[in-house]
């Protein structure tokens, strides 16, 4: 296996919570797919942290795609959980096309959050 792309992002949880508070469904629908929005069922602080970690994963993926990511909407990068709980990326539309243009076949993602910040790292592999 070879690494074709690497991206990392960190975000303040409060920044994402503020965007949700100010823009509500308009923001959520533009950034997150319905399955990702399911985290909103959690307690407010836990939901904000989960959304922030997903935001960081989307940013990290776009960074990993590099020049091929031009015009990729956040919504085309979906963070899902396997039954084991491990996060996984599902790429749609422009994100899928960018991955294929890069020549990558697999993605790996890790996410974490602690108090004020959420972080994610994405590897693109062939």
Structure commentary:
- The protein has 126 residues and is of the alpha+beta class.
- It has a single domain, classed as Ribosomal Protein L22, Chain A (Alpha-Beta Complex), CATH 3.90.470.20.
- It has four helices and five strands; from the N terminus they run βαααββαββ.
- The protein has helices spanning 13-31, 34-37, 44-65, 93-102; strands at 3-12, 77-81, 87-91, 106-114, 117-125.
- It has a three-stranded antiparallel beta sheet with strand order 1-5-4. It has a two-stranded antiparallel ribbon with strand order 2-3.
- α1 packs across α3.
- The longest helix is centred in the middle third of the chain and has 22 residues, at 44-65.
- The chain is globular, with a radius of gyration of 14 Å.
Summarize the structure.
With 126 residues, the protein is an alpha+beta fold.
Task: Throw out a few tags for this protein.
126 residues; alpha+beta; Ribosomal Protein L22, Chain A; three-stranded antiparallel beta sheet; two-stranded antiparallel ribbon; 4 helices
Per DSSP, the total helix count is 4
For the CA atoms, what is the radius of gyration? 14 Å
Q: Characterize the overall form.
A: globular
CATH class value: Alpha Beta
- Please identify, by name, the CATH architecture: Alpha-Beta Complex
Helix and strand element order: EHHHEEHEE
Largest sheet: 3 strands, antiparallel
Cα(first) to Cα(last) distance is 6 Å
Total number of β-strand segments? 5
Which class do the helix and strand fractions yield? alpha+beta
Q: How do the strands line up in the largest sheet?
A: 1-5-4
Q: What percent of residues adopt helix (DSSP H or I)?
A: 40-55%
Question: Into how many domains do the coordinates divide?
Answer: 1
